[in-house]
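Design a sequence for this backbone.
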């Protein structure tokens, strides 16, 4: 398989959030702030990429019958590392979203990629898949956070952007706005992919 295509497929055609529609819980919960979205993306990367590598490296010695508990154990180890690093270096933001960082251990995207890709492919391809899924997840999360925070609070990463006279639309920082934004992005991406397929 073309190496760049592995990354591209995870970012656009098989985007974990917009196309496969998994991992929505954390996206909805932490996408009302750019800082939270960036920290969540960091934690996701710290778990997804090394977990893919370890699962792929061990795939030939992992008994098929107990593969899922082993996947979860590997993911849990890296989730702990990600949580400790987040707490050490980004504690103020970590305290707001720590529950969702800790729940990365059962994130459908990470377990799904371990099962569907890393367990079936080589280490380098699994590394690239981890990068692609991290980028795909992070782009969606940060894009939604920028819009929600800007409209809902008038700020970006806590910095005031809108003029003082601006009246924030508080609905945008509530969970329903997350679903609305995902719906809009899904529609836009599906339209793009269908037009691209039509040209072929």
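Sequence:
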């Amino acid at each position: 398989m073309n190496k760049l295509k592995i990354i591209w497929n995870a970012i656009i055609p098989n985007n974990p959030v917009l196309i496969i529609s998994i991992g929505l819980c954390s996206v909805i919960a932490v996408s009302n702030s750019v800082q939270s979205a960036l920290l969540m993306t960091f934690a996701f990367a710290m778990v997804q990429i090394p977990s893919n590598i370890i699962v792929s490296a061990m795939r030939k010695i992992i008994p098929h019958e107990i593969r899922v508990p082993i996947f979860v154990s590997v993911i849990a180890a890296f989730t702990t590392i990600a949580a400790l690093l987040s707490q050490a270096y980004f504690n103020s933001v970590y305290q707001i979203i720590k529950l969702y960082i800790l729940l990365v251990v059962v994130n459908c995207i990470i377990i799904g990629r371990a099962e569907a890709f890393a367990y079936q492919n080589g280490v380098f391809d699994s590394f690239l898949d981890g990068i692609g899924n991290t980028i795909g997840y992070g782009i969606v999360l940060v894009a939604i956070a920028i819009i929600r925070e800007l409209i809902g609070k008038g700020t970006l990463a806590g910095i005031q952007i809108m003029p003082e006279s601006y009246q924030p639309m508080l609905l945008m920082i509530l969970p329903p706005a997350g679903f609305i934004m995902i719906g809009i992005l899904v529609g836009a991406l599906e339209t793009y992919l269908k037009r691209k397929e039509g040209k072929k």
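Residues 3-199 form one domain.
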